Amino acid sequence: MDENxxxxxxxxxxNKNVEETGLVVxxxxxxxxxxxxxxxxxxxxxxxxxxxxxxxxGILYSSFSAKLxxxxxxxxxxxxxxxxxxxxxxxxxxxxxSSNGNMYSAVDIAKKVGPSIVGVRMTVTSSxxxxxxxxxxxxxxxxxxxxxxISSDGYIMTNYHVVEYADPKSGVSxxxxxxxxxxxxxxxxxxxxxxxxxxxxxxxxxxxxNLPVAELGDSSKLxxxxxxxxxxxxxxxxxxGSVTVGVISALNRQVETEDKTLNLIQxxxxxxxxxxxxxxxxxxxxxxxxNTVKISETGVxxxxxxxxxxxxxxxxxxxxxxxxxxxxxxxxxxxQEITQVMSARYGLPVGIYIVDVTSGSxxxxxxxxxxxxxxxxxxxxVKTMSDVNTIKxxxxxxxxxxxxxxxxxxxxxxxxxxxxxx
Length: 422
Description:
This protein is mostly beta strands.
């Protein structure tokens, strides 16, 4: 199988109304369907569990402390994993070391890491117009995922797609409720701290103290074939605290999702909807990955992926401190990709048709207007927003690049100074 997957994506907020003419996208956040380069259709699923869409919201949560131990004990693999003398770290984080002293079983790993893995529920309330009855009816849409406690005072790391509608940039954050469910049965409302859609990472916070903190490992030391344990909430809170055992199947997998490419760890430890934001753990009981996506196709099993914790650490630190990743360049355009077919039909050049320009952005200051077509950036032709974002990765906020736009059939050269993507 090609390591550079470009599978079709299941989108939770894909606008079906623009499929025929192209998708309006932004250089900040964009979602675009691409054809798979695999002979067999493969669906790459962001593993958040959509639980309900009903007038009376959600399912009741019951604590999963008892489940955690019983499910771990029921694992078919009871092989012992070498601890390499990390019992001091286990004590430091309030965990239980293996009875063998130098070895961790799946049960021991579950006991050590399980208390630091939480359930995350996002409920978005919307008004549905009642055409025949008149008036509006409130409807709750609930999705559930997982999270990892990274500080004793309530900071929790998870996937951005688990909590994206709580992000003020989503436009619906005032209608979103974030809840966190701890293994000891405690529940708390959570606050969105910051998110990075580009790397699918986010930080939320609960006002609780003395929480058990997960020990973060070093994903650069991983080797293919070593044991891996996934802990999270497959299919939501009903199966909270589930533990599955497998191995590290591959490293540095380049997986393309939503027009961005993520560098991921591949594992055959079972990962299912609801596991998003949960932990992939090594044989020392250290978190070495954040479970993110899986490949879902009939007859295909054991293809789950996690963000390496070494990639996540610096991003999460900035999200905690600033609420965003500093220095990331932002142009300030939203546009529609003009394909060869659309170019021939409408007499427009291939490129990005500008639908909107953000006030005060580098694009506005460069004189770019609605109706222009961006055809070149930093000396390179652009045909898609993926091209634009690939070019942007080579620059930082404050850098200036040359760009070419087409307006009323004439090419115009402009200079764009990137602002900061906050």
